[in-house]
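Action item from last week, closing it out:
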Amino acid sequence: MFENLSHLKTYEAGKPIELVVREYGIKPENIIKLASNENPYGPSPKVIEAVKNLAHLMHRYPDDSFYELKEELAKNYEIDSSNIIIGAGSDQVLEFAVRAANPKKVLMAGITFAMYEIYSKQVNAKILKTPSITHNLDEFYEIYKKEKPEIIFLCVPNNPLGECLDARDVFEFIEKVDENILVVVDGAYQEFASFKDKNKEIKPKDILKYKNVLYTGTFSKAYGLGGMRVGFGIANEFIIKNLHKLRPPFNITTLSLIAAVSALKDKEWVKRGIEENFKEMQKYINFAKEKGLKYIDSFTNFIVLFVPNSTKLANELLKKGIIIRDMASYGFDAVRITIGKPDENDKLLNILRKLS
């Protein structure tokens, strides 16, 4: 039974607060979670109010056309609603893409979002990875020419490392790829990258001129709706119509739909959160320079620091009620830290200074 799944790994999510409460007996209010790239500021107060006001509708299925959400997204990205599909997180749209293409080979960066590989292995595809851990488009192109994969994943910016390709380079690469190869541009952190550097900004409307490109985005990061699980895909109508054949009915909840629509309307809240993110990230950069630690220049809401014995450090912090992500499973000593609120970052950095 289930022999066909024996080659699959289970995705390892960041440790939940509840686990630390159980294992270390620390009160929930004293735990700082900086492991899952969640937005520490949460959603706009207007989103919370909208959900409260309409919570009595939770016994009703959502509008399965997601008309209002698609209209808001279309307005936001200057596209047509027919170019949009809604998913339970962008992960679900990525799954639709893999199942629709049913690839024999899939190409991705040496280290990137784990679900690309997991979904691809579910359809028994061969996984191709670049030698470099970050995105090197020359390596991508060499492997593409030799192997001719049916899907190419570009994570822009890249999770879990944080680096980001320039938009111009992404489009130049797409131009060189055959139109029968699906290129997926994962923009889960695009709001952060485009704020920090306009050269990194990939506008979904520019994706639509290509027959073979799918852009994915999420409400889990910049919009602070990680627990609501809302994502979307943007592509030409041919791709979207085929992905819809795989979408189950009512695949996001009534309250998730309400929250996402409201979140899109409060652009000022999103902007303030992103501004604060990069202001606070500078504290970690200063710490790394102070201690002579290498780090990856990040265009996201997290930063990767290379530290000696990352597993020991992560475990020491757990005992103190601070959850970060140990990167040792990727083959090197580093930790990934989600940028938290000022007091959370200050507490962690004070502890790091004492431990180092």
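Closing note: The longest helix spans residues 267-291.
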